[in-house]
Specification:
Blueprint (H helix, E strand, L loop, with lengths): L5 E6 L4 H12 L2 E7 L6 H11 L3 E5 L5 H15 L4 E4 L14 H29 L2 E6 L2 H5 L5 H21 L4 E8 L12 H9 L9 H12 L10 E4 L6
Parallel strand pairs: 1-2, 1-4, 2-3, 4-5, 5-6, 6-7
Helix pairs in contact: 1-2, 1-8, 3-4, 4-6
The structure holds NADP nicotinamide-adenine-dinucleotide phosphate.
C-alpha cells in the first residue's frame, strides 16, 4: 500500500453491509467511491461523515450487471479519487424459492448480480491494480455458499462461485502484490434479512453458538481488516463472520 491517502471502491454501498463498509473505510481514512442501483435518499449523510474524517466519498448509480457502466464507473472513480487501492465487491440480491418452482429468470438474476457482477467489477479493476503492483480485493460471499441453504440454490451457487473465483484470482495476481480475500457473513440484520419471520429467525438463532444475529458493522470491521496492510500476509482466505454457525 502506498503512503498517503488510500482509495477504495465498494459495490452496493448504499445500504446494509456495503454501507457499513463505506462508513468504516471513511473512518479509516480512505477516499471511497461506491455504487448501487438507486442512489439513497440519505447519501448526504455519507458526505458529512467523509467531511468529518477529512476524506472524500462519491456515490454513483451503477448496476453491476452492466459491464459498460461498470467500466465507465471504475475509470471515472479512479480519475476522481486518484487511483485504486481496495475493491470491495458486495452488491448482492436474493430470490429465495424451492428449486421446483425456480424459473430461469430467478436463477439468472441472482447469479448475474452476485457472481457475474463480481467478475464484471473485478475484471474491470484488475488491470489497474496489476499496473500499480499492489492493492487488495475483498469479495462478500455468504455462509450459504459454504453450507448450502434450502430455497437458496441460486444464491448459494452464486456465493460458492465467489469463493472459487476469489481463490483462483488470489493465485493469479499474488505475484503483482495483490491480495484477494472473502468474507462469509451469517445472518446479518439488513434489509435483505428483514423479511424473515419471527419463527424462522428464532430457529436460525438457536443454531448460532453466539445466540444472536450479526450487525453490518461487524462484517465491515472484518472487511476493513482484510483490505488493510494489517492483513498483508493473508490472501485467498474465507473469513466467516457468523457467530460460529459453521463450527
Ligand atoms: P441489502 O441491505 O439488500 O443491500 C444490498 C446492496 O447491494 C444495496 O446497496 C443495493 O443497491 C446493492 N445492489 C443490489 N443489486 C445491485 C446491482 N445489480 N448493482 C449495484 N448494486 C446492487 O443487502 P445486505 O444484507 O447488505 O447484503 C450485502 C452483501 O452481503 C450481499 O452480497 C449479500 O449476499 C451478502 N450477505 C448478506 C447477509 C445478510 O444476512 N444480510 C449474509 C451473508 C451475505 P440498491 O439499493 O440500489 O438496490
Amino acid at each position: 500500500m502506498p503512503a498517503g491517502p488510500r482509495t477504495a471502491l465498494v459495490t452496493g454501498g448504499s445500504r446494509g453491509i456495503g454501507r457499513a463498509v463505506v462508513e468504516r473505510l471513511l473512518a479509516d481514512g480512505y477516499d471511497v467511491g461506491y455504487c448501487c442501483r438507486t442512489m439513497p435518499a440519505d447519501a448526504a449523510d455519507l458526505e458529512r461523515l467523509a467531511d468529518k474524517h477529512g476524506v472524500r466519498v462519491h456515490g454513483t448509480a451503477v448496476d453491476v450487471t452492466d459491464g459498460t457502466a461498470v467500466r465507465a464507473w471504475l475509470e471515472q472513480a479512479e480519475e476522481r479519487l486518484g487511483g485504486l487501492d481496495t475493491l470491495v465487491t458486495n452488491a448482492g440480491i436474493v430470490r429465495d424459492m424451492p428449486l421446483a418452482v425456480m424459473g430461469r429468470e430467478h436463477w439468472d438474476a441472482v447469479v448475474g448480480t452476485n457472481l457475474t457482477g463480481t467478475y464484471t467489477v473485478c475484471q474491470a479493476a484488475v488491470m489497474s491494480l496489476m499496473r500499480r503492483r499492489g492493492g487488495s480485493i475483498v469479495a462478500v460471499s455468504s455462509v450459504a455458499g459454504l453450507r448450502g441453504n434450502a430455497t437458496q440454490t441460486n444464491y448459494a451457487a452464486s456465493k460458492a462461485g465467489i469463493v472459487g473465483f476469489a481463490k483462483s484470482l488470489a493465485k493469479e495476481v499474488a505475484r503483482f502484490g495483490i491480495r484477494v480475500n472473502v468474507v462469509a457473513p451469517g445472518l446479518i440484520e439488513t434489509d435483505m434479512t428483514a423479511g424473515l419471520d419471527d419463527k424462522a429467525r428464532r430457529k436460525v438463532v438457536a443454531d448460532i453458538p453466539l445466540r444472536r444475529t450479526g450487525r453490518a458493522e461487524e462484517v465491515a470491521d472484518a472487511v476493513a481488516f482484510l483490505a488493510s496492510d494489517r492483513a498483508a500476509y493473508i490472501t485467498g482466505q474465507v473469513v466467516r463472520i457468523d457467530g460460529g454457525i459453521g463450527i
